[in-house]
């Protein structure tokens, strides 16, 4: 029997595997509505989300359906988990009834426990630590427009400790790009890598970058720090000043939801919304291919 695949972290995928996923994602994007893959036929996948979601939930539910499977959204508040049932028991029971699990939660340890006890593939749909599906899809979105990301400079402006930034930092060495985090000092990346640099200067991070990327200043679960963060991050945004020093053909990405005139200037968002919405759409195509890879059916 083949070992189970999980996608809990950017560390769970090799560049070569990601490239196979991107190839299939592009094919399925082009042929949507003409080609009907069946990688999840007769399968039921559960989604447990302990935090709100628009894009991740929608893209996974649609992806599962378009692969011939059924998606079962389980409200975390209605599960016995909310009354303290151990993850071990929940995971064991899910594993006897469904074929895979997609989970959005707080601690990375929780997705690891589901993977350890469920005996089914588990996908991290965002934890406090990582958002690997987002970044995998974002690398695809960059390459779709600009070719290989290898050797390029990517600037992440905002909270260098947040889940999205951490997944970007783990991806840097794997894909061979240089990530510059432009964050206040207390929010530098915890990832130590020759491919990751931290600076408190937005200009230094953005200088000659091929991609300017940002995310909210206040991630889900950090609401109690809102006032402090609004002050600390007030200069850490993608605006005309950042764009003026970036590469002439720099892309602007935002994982969304976006707060205008906070982490991204309203005028920049409005000018670049087409590339940002395409970035969001690609979550569907990439996650479809990711699901097929996870169940070992990327090639039929
Ligand atoms: N970018 C992203 O993951 O969006 P949602 O929180 O809406 O899923
Ligand atoms: N860092 C953000 C990402 C939202 C998709 C958060 O965790 O809220």
Question: Your description of this structure?
Answer:
By secondary structure, this protein is an alpha/beta fold. The protein folds into two domains: 133 residues, Aspartate/ornithine carbamoyltransferase (Rossmann fold, 3-Layer(aba) Sandwich); 148 residues, Rossmann fold, CATH 3.40.50.1370. 42% of the residues lie in helices and 14% in strands. It has ten helices and nine strands. A five-stranded parallel sheet has the order 7-6-5-8-9. α2 packs parallel to α10, α3 packs across α4 and α5 crosses α6. It is globular, with a radius of gyration of 19 Å. The two termini are 18 Å apart. The chain binds phosphoric acid mono(formamide)ester (CP) and norvaline (NVA). Phosphoric acid mono(formamide)ester binds next to α2.
What would you give as the CATH superfamily of the largest domain?
A: Aspartate/ornithine carbamoyltransferase
Q: Name the helix and strand elements from N-terminus to C-terminus, one letter apiece.
A: HEHEHEHEHEHEEHEHHEH
CATH class placement of the largest domain = Alpha Beta
CATH architecture level-2 label of the largest domain: 3-Layer(aba) Sandwich
In round numbers, the mean pLDDT is 97
Residue share in helix: 40-55%
Spatial sequence of strands, sheet with the most strands:
7-6-5-8-9
**Rg on CA atoms, Å:** 19 Å
- Which ligands does the model contain, each kind named once? phosphoric acid mono(formamide)ester, norvaline
EC number: 2.1.3.3
Domain Aspartate/ornithine carbamoyltransferase Asp/Orn-binding: 150-293
Keywords: Transferase
Domain Aspartate/ornithine carbamoyltransferase carbamoyl-P binding: 5-144
């Amino acid at each position: 029997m083949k070992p189970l695949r999980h996608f809990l972290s950017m560390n769970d995928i090799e560049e070569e595997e990601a490239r196979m996923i991107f190839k299939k994602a592009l094919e399925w994007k082009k042929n949507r509505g003409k080609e009907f893959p069946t990688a999840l036929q007769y399968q039921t996948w559960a989604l447990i989300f302990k935090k709100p979601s628009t894009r991740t939930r929608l893209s996974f539910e649609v992806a599962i359906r378009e692969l011939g499977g059924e998606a079962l959204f389980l409200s975390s508040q209605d599960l016995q988990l909310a009354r303290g049932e151990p993850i071990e028991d929940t995971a064991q029971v899910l594993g006897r009834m469904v074929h895979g699990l997609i989970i959005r939660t707080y601690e990375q340890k929780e997705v690891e426990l589901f993977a350890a006890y469920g005996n089914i593939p588990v996908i991290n749909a965002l934890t406090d630590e990582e958002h690997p599906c987002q970044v995998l899809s974002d690398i695809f979105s960059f390459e779709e427009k600009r070719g290989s990301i290898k050797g390029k400079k990517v600037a992440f402006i905002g909270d260098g400790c947040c889940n999205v930034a951490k997944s970007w930092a783990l991806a840097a060495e794997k894909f061979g790009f240089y990530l510059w985090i432009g964050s206040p000092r207390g929010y530098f990346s915890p990832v130590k890598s020759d491919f990751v640099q931290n600076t408190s200067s937005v200009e230094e991070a953005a200088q000659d970058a091929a991609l300017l990327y940002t995310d909210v200043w206040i991630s889900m679960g950090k609401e109690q720090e809102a006032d402090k963060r609004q002050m600390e991050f007030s200069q850490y945004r993608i605006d005309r000043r950042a764009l003026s020093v970036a590469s002439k053909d720099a892309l602007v990405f935002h994982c969304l939801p976006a707060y205008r005139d906070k982490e991204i200037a309203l005028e920049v968002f409005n000018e670049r919304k087409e590339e940002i919405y395409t970035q969001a759409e690609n979550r569907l195509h990439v996650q479809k291919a990711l699901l097929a890879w996870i169940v070992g059916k990327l090639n039929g």
